[in-house]
Design a protein that fits this description.
heterodimer; A: 298 residues; mainly alpha; disordered N terminus; B: 107 residues; mainly beta; 2 domains; six-stranded antiparallel β-sheet; 10 strands; 0% helix
């Protein structure tokens, strides 16, 4: 008997001891996220042949965009697929959160899904650093210094994430191209029991991504030597960036971003009496996050 | 203590060179170091923001250093003016190096 997390499929086999099929959402966010991940993975493999995480990384990226045949298209497709993976994973989790699927499946299964979604953030963040432009370098510096703010393990953790100097991009590169994708693949395998995506919307979605990549302009890369008065991190980090202006780094940049993810992951573990409050608290944390993010965009 | 030669050999990965001595009030930037001409001589400041390590930009109009990431601002002497940074900019010890007619900074 196999459990799949594809609640939209008309399957009756599961090993959770409960029938999730009838109650589960029927939209395709999860499947589309899987498609997006595969597109990002495939384009990432091609890009990695031409990317050098040492020396003049900005030049390496500029060469990919300017000289590699279809390089700019591949970069855009990789970027868009990555963004879609995060957004669709969020939609997938949100859908199941609102339908309270976490009450009906094993807690471990739910936590795995939330972890899978959470990994989208470091994947996109390391990708942002690897652009090698001014924004990427400063995002790396901020990540390094934020990690150092964590008591006791901070400095060791920071050195595990990034090494300033010649090898600045090496560790983010390893995380982005090897460690995080392999972890996602492992979790996807555990979550869906199949790695290849399926679903009727897959090919139209791919066509949509390709079309978007053809006409969508990438945010401009800022040369590392250029002095500018304002630098932005990745879009999902703008709220945290805004908070960092007011709140101590440990709270704004480490504890606060983890809270909604942790609350979501721990939902099934809440005692039945507190379950409703757990959901409200989680929703409130996400809403406040969303509001700060919108405030940062405005 | 790490020695960083402002006029050191190009083969050293830590070396940075300043080809000119800044006049009074002038600010020169190279490889993460701001060299500022002050009345008493020269002042070398690390361009790294003491808040979260972003590289400070020099705003010539306001004559101050600004963090492009989180908005901290510092005076030409490295004193914190506003923003989330709690510390001043790091002042680097500066010594004249007669061998190569330049300046070296001690971190």
């Amino acid at each position: 008997m196999q459990q799949t997390a594809d609640y939209g499929q008309q399957t009756t086999d599961n090993n959770h001891g409960q029938r999730t099929t009838d109650n589960g959402p029927r939209t395709n966010y999860g499947q589309l996220a899987l498609w997006a991940f595969h597109v990002a993975l495939l384009t990432g493999v091609i890009l990695s042949f031409h990317y050098r995480p040492w020396g003049d990384v900005f030049k390496s990226v500029s060469k990919i965009s300017g000289w590699l045949p279809y390089g700019d298209f591949l970069r855009k497709l990789h970027y868009l697929a990555g963004q879609c993976f995060l957004i669709l994973s969020f939609a997938h989790v949100l859908e199941h959160f609102l339908k309270e699927t976490y009450r009906r499946i094993r807690p471990k299964e739910w936590s795995r899904l939330v972890l899978l979604f959470s990994l989208g953030f470091p994947l996109l963040f390391t990708g942002f650093i690897l652009k090698g432009d001014k924004e990427g370098i400063l995002a790396g510096e901020v990540m390094y210094h934020l990690a150092q703010e964590i008591p006791l393990i901070g400095s060791g953790l920071a050195r595990m994430l990034l090494r300033p100097g010649e090898e600045f991009f090496l560790l983010p590169y390893l995380y982005h191209t090897v460690i995080l994708p392999l972890t996602v693949i492992f979790l996807l395998d555990r979550h869906t029991r199949r790695l290849l995506p399926r679903g009727d919307w897959g090919w139209p979605f791919m066509a949509f991504l390709a079309l978007l990549a053809t006409f969508f302009p990438l945010p401009p890369d800022i040369p590392p030597y250029m002095e500018i008065s304002h630098i932005s991190g990745p879009w999902f980090f703008h709220g945290v960036q805004l908070l960092l202006r007011q709140v101590p780094p440990l709270w704004a940049g480490v504890i606060w971003p983890v809270i909604p993810l942790l609350l979501t992951a721990l939902l099934p573990f809440a005692p039945p009496k507190l379950s409703k409050w757990g959901k409200r608290l989680t929703m409130a944390a996400w809403l406040i996050h969303g509001m700060i993010l919108v405030a940062a965009w405005l | 203590m790490i020695w960083k030669y402002i006029c050191g050999s190009a083969s050293s990965p830590l070396s940075v060179s300043f080809s000119e001595r800044p006049r009074d009030g002038q600010v020169i930037f190279n490889s993460g170091v701001y060299l500022i001409g002050v009345k008493s001589g020269l002042l070398a400041l690390s361009a790294r923001c003491p808040h979260l390590g972003c590289q400070l930009a020099y705003n010539a109009a306001d004559r101050r250093f600004q963090c492009p990431c989180h908005g901290s601002q510092f005076s030409l002497k490295g004193h914190r003016l506003k923003g989330p940074a709690k510390k001043e900019m790091t002042v680097l010890e500066l010594r004249q190096d007669h061998e190569c007619e330049g300046y070296k900074v001690i971190f």
